[in-house]
UniProtKB/TrEMBL annotation:
Membrane topology annotation: Single-pass membrane protein
Record-linked NCBIfam families: secE_bact
Family: Belongs to the SecE/SEC61-gamma family.
Entry-linked InterPro entries: SecE_bac, SecE_sf, Translocase_SecE/Sec61-g
Compartment(s): Cell membrane; Membrane
Protein name as it appears in the record: Protein translocase subunit SecE
Transmembrane segments: 44-64
Gene that encodes the chain: secE
Originating species: Aquipuribacter hungaricus
Subunit field text: Component of the Sec protein translocase complex. Heterotrimer consisting of SecY, SecE and SecG subunits. The heterotrimers can form oligomers, although 1 heterotrimer is thought to be able to translocate proteins. Interacts with the ribosome. Interacts with SecDF, and other proteins may be involved. Interacts with SecA.
Pfam families the record matches: SecE
Function text: Essential subunit of the Sec protein translocation channel SecYEG. Clamps together the 2 halves of SecY. May contact the channel plug during translocation.
The keyword Transmembrane is assigned to this record: yes
Keyword terms: Cell membrane, Membrane, Protein transport, Translocation, Transmembrane, Transmembrane helix, Transport
Length: 79
């Protein structure tokens, strides 16, 4: 009979610790978010510009490859 009471105590303890673990997790997340250094407006504009230029460059590269391979396939298979 003592095994049953120990099992229920362990289950209650487990549910309390998981709840406490979640609260601890949230506290740690908030502490880490406070450490984040946000970029200035100038940095944000610069980073966004770099990303957009890179995306356009990759888009042009892929478009040229697609056009080239498309023409190659049409030439090879007589389209």
């Amino acid at each position: 009979m003592s095994d049953t009471s120990e099992g229920s105590t362990a289950a209650a303890s487990s549910s309390t610790s998981s709840r406490g673990g979640f609260v601890l997790f949230l506290r740690q997340v908030l502490a880490e978010l406070r450490k984040v250094v946000r970029p200035t407006r100038d940095e944000l504009v610069a980073y966004t510009s770099v990303v957009l230029v890179f995306v356009v460059a990759v888009m042009l590269y892929v478009s040229v490859l697609d056009l080239g391979f498309g023409r190659l396939v049409l030439w090879a298979f007589g389209g």
